Amino acid sequence: MTRRRLHIVLHWAVFMLILAMVKGGTSADWVRWAFVVSVALWVGIAVTKGLIGKAGPKLGPRTRAIYPWMHRALYGVLALSAALNAAELTGLLSPGPAWTSLLVLLGLGAFHGLFQFWRHTALYDNALRLITPRFMHGIL
Hints:
globular
């Protein structure tokens, strides 16, 4: 499996795990552990190999300059949320902060998705093709 394909799988797996955890207000421990492990793997790859997403040439100079920092911030919030979930699951932290972090992560993820959708539809830079599985490219 290539690094890009692994990145795509982890991106969508983490997204689905967040939705599964948030949908009912609570989640089974195995779902939370799957989230923690997936995020640890994803962030570990990003830290060791670098970010895979790059600002497109059609973005303005200011947006291109802050793009990598926005990406790093998302990874930071993702790692913090996973750490809080792990701490709650192991009993090191009382329940509450992990739930709040998931809601914050879901909100930031919504902005992230809207930004990428805007890039894809307004700038026509195929931003969504970079992160969607190949079988979906025909509908983009």
